[in-house]
Amino acid sequence: MTARALGRDRRLGRTDVLVGALGFGGAPLGNLYTPLDDDRARATVEAAWDAGVRYYDTAPHYGLGLSERRLGAALAHRPRAEFTVSTKVGRLLEPHPAPTGSDLAAGGFAVPDTMVRRPDYSRDGVLRCLEGSLTRLGLDRVDIVYVHDPDDHLDTALDQALPALADLRDQGVVGAVGVGMNTVAPLLRTVAEADVDAVMVAGRWTLVDRTARPLLDACARRGVSVVAAAPFNSGLLSRPYPPDDAFFDYGPAPAALLHRARRLAGICTGHGTTLPHAAVRFPLRDATVATVVAGFRSPQEVTSAADWSAHDLPATTWSALDSAG
Fold it and tell me: Which domains does the chain have, with CATH numbers?
């Protein structure tokens, strides 16, 4: 595999923003669930670059800004024109009035909770949030900005956050505008009502969860690109054979889904491939999907995923997997 195999050759919507088949998800850089030291975090980003990954996604939410700081530092010596960066707005970081010592309970990240997230999907909140992200990233611009998880604030996001980002796009401050969520219904409403270039849907267009099918159809009609995040469904599809304690959607995998994933794993083995290889490639089968974004905690993980994303499975393998699914 060469770097060119994963180069930026996929356009987001009708914009000039380019991504590759595989995107680097920055949540683990923020110490998602367990700590990751600075050296390993940097080595993981370096491995992604060496493998040809040129799209990097992060958010203030990830480690209360730690992910953005680590990503910015790791990319600081790279030519800015050669990579694409996205971040998110909707959660302002402010000093914590009563820190407990750890963000694990409140946010799921193994970092000191010296800051607190305050939801703000107003126009002013979007501008303040983006300004903070640029400072932490050490960049003068980002290519893509997503409104982050506005499930309980969708009206405000549609009325204020997205129009504010569209204005920034029209001014050339950002390249593309989108929304990132785990649920399909509000993304469908967003595509119908807002001027977006892309939607990031996490965990709903995967080998075992294909509930985003109506969203992909709507995006195809509107010329909106889909960014398929969390292809491993919180770990269920990340190993050749899912273990008893596998997670799905941030919690223990239900028995029925575990059984289904194991059946798919057996088919993969019988066809000379692995479950995680199929998991990475599955979303890319639909032309509306511009890229698959997955989080990585080690150079080995990102190198394997880069290889999988660059090599499709035979049609006979997909036919067997589709029949079982």
Answer: 3-324 (3.20.20.100)
Which of these is catalytic: 62, 146, 241, 250? 62
The total of other beta-carbon atoms located within 10 Å of residue 298's CB is 15
- Please name the helix (run of DSSP H) or strand (run of DSSP E) that holds residue 89, with its range, or none: strand 84-89
**Measured distance CA(7)–CA(13) in Å, rounded:** 18
Question: Residue 248 and residue 266: Cα distance in Å, rounded?
Answer: 19
For residue 200, the model assigns a pLDDT of 98
- State the Cα–Cα distance between residues 228 and 19, nearest whole angstrom: 12
Nearest Cα to Cα of residue 264 among 308, 319, 201: 319
Q: What average pLDDT does this structure show over 215-240? A: 97
Determine if the pTM surpasses 0.90.
Answer: yes
Q: What's the token pair of residue 11?
A: 């356009």
Task: Give bridge partners of residue 251 from the DSSP assignment.
Answer: 248
Q: Is 119 helix (H, G, I), strand (E, B) or coil?
A: strand
- Provide the CB-side half-sphere exposure for 309 (13 A, CA): 31
Catalytic annotation present for 241: no
pLDDT tens-digit map of 132-150: 999 999 999 999 999 999 9
Residue (of 43, 1, 52) closest to 22 by Cα position: 52
Question: Cβ-count burial of 324 within 10 angstroms (0-12 exposed, 13-18 middle, 19+ buried)?
Answer: exposed
Partners of residue 248 on adjacent β-strands? 251
Consecutive H or E run containing 72? helix 66-75
DSSP readout, 262-312? HHHHHHHHHTT--HHHHHHHGGGGSTTEEEEEEE-SSHHHHHHHHHHHTSP
Tokens of 125: 């909140």
Q: Are 225 and 173 in contact (CB under 8 A)?
A: no
Angle at alpha carbon of residue 169, lines to 123 and 125, rounded to 5°: 20
